[in-house]
Amino acid sequence: MYSIAIIGAGNMGAFYDSPQSPYILSHAHAFCAHPEFNLVGFVDSNGAQAQKAAGIWGGRGYESVEELFKVEQVDGMVIAVADGGHFDVFKTVTSFPIRFICLEKPIALKIDQARSMVELAEQKQITVLVNYSRRYLTDYVRLKENIQAGVHGRFLGGTGLYGKGLIHNGSHMLDLLLYFFGIPEVDSKRHALIDFSSQDPTWSALLRWGEEAYFNLMGMDSREFTIFEIDLLFSRGRVHIQNSGGRIDIYGVEESSLYSGYKNLAKTQELQVDLAQSLPSLANNLYDTLQNKSQPRCTLEDGFRVLSLCLSIREGE
Q1: Tell me: the pLDDT tens digits for 8-28?
Q2: HEC profile for the chain?
Q3: Which of 12, 63, 80, 210 is deepest in the core (most CB within 10 A)?
């Protein structure tokens, strides 16, 4: 059994659900539900918040990582603090003898910070899993395998709609594109809107793979409503990801029944994806990785590539 502590007693760390919830939506629930992890407590600069989380999920509350390690022997950590705190917390926890880190996305906000994190993890031989959540869902693993095996044919291009910051939320979409197709060129960036943070505008851009496949990344105002949709077109059909990734419609190509010589798209499959399985699957993947049964579904290097692409769109870094 591996002992684990959660840094950041917020919604993602502890309060999106409760032990009685039918869905597993927090790291606390995911690791408490896994038989091979023992949650020893929470760390939060707001000590009362850490104590509140511990009162719900077990363990103890601490105001600092240093205080935690004076009391506990911890194998690994979940870093679920605000985006801007990831780098500093990562540096702190890697100064202690731990084996693994589960890191919320984005891994950092600056490329030099992200590079230092990759180097630190390599030096200390610490296993790091990044929570780009859809990578941990079986339907998306299978979709990637089918895309790369050519089941849907040649990639022609597509469109994506997202909001709430390029790095904070758009990076989920960019991570899926990297997962499916590899690293694109940033053909051009369009405009940015401030719907989440002035430090993280929601950018629109045109991405390109080779000379033929273009993807139109479209930033929308999340203050009006939440949207996360990806429409991918292939020579043999279409993949339409909807409802924040909770539904995947698969289309094939068929001859038109009305017009000779024309071909139409026809839906062949509709997948309902259980998004609430992402954190349990992450916990399983972490355990299997520690037991040398598998590889991380999303590594620190994957997170570095996503951040690099975000900054290429935003600043040309």
Answers
A1: 999 999 999 999 999 999 999
A2: CEEEEEECCCHHHHHCCCCCCCCCCCHHHHHHHCCCEEEEEEECCCHHHHHHHHHHHCCEEECCHHHHHHHCCCCEEEECCCHHHHHHHHHHHCCCCCCEEEEECCCCCCHHHHHHHHHHHHHHCCEEEEECHHHHCHHHHHHHHHHHCCCCCCEEEEEEEECCCHHHHHHHHHHHHHHHHCCCEEEEEEEEEEEEECCEEEEEEEEEECCCEEEEEEECCCCCCCCCEEEEEECCEEEEEEHHHCEEEEEEEEECCCCCCCEEEEEEEEEECCHHHHHHHHHHHHHHHHCCCCCCCCEHHHHHHHHHHHHHHHCCC
A3: 80
